[in-house]
Amino acid sequence: QLRLMESGGGLVQAGGSLRLSCTASGFPLVSYGVKWYRQAPGKEREGVASIHCSGNAIKYADSVKVRITISRHNAKNTLYLPMYSLIPEDTAVYYCKSTDNVWGQGTQVTVSS
Known about the structure:
Blueprint: E1 3-7, E2 10-13, E3 18-25, E4 34-39, E5 46-51, E6 59-60, E7 71-73, E8 78-83, E9 92-98, E10 107-112
Parallel strand pairs: 2-10
Antiparallel strand pairs: 1-3, 3-8, 4-5, 4-9, 5-6, 7-8, 9-10
C-alpha cells in the first residue's frame, strides 16, 4: 500500500520553528516529486514547496520563501520541511503529496501570537 505520513506539527509561539516530516511507505520517494501544501481554516489550499524526484528543481511559495527549506533523506525515505521564524499566518494543516497523487493525512501547525 502506497502511503505518505506527515509528522512534526504542533503548537509554537511566533518566531519559533518546527520541522515537518513526510515519510513514504510502499514506494521510494526518489522516484517521485513531492509537493507540500497547507490549508488554513476558511482558506484555499496553498502550495508551499516542491522538490523534483531528482532532488533538484526546488521551489517555494513567496509567502514562505527564506523561512523554510526542503530536503530529502533517501535512506529514510523521508522528506523534511524545516520552518523558521513562524508567524500566525503559517497556522494550517500541512500535507505532502507525491506526483502520482498519493496524499498524507496532514499535520497541524498552530502558531500563537
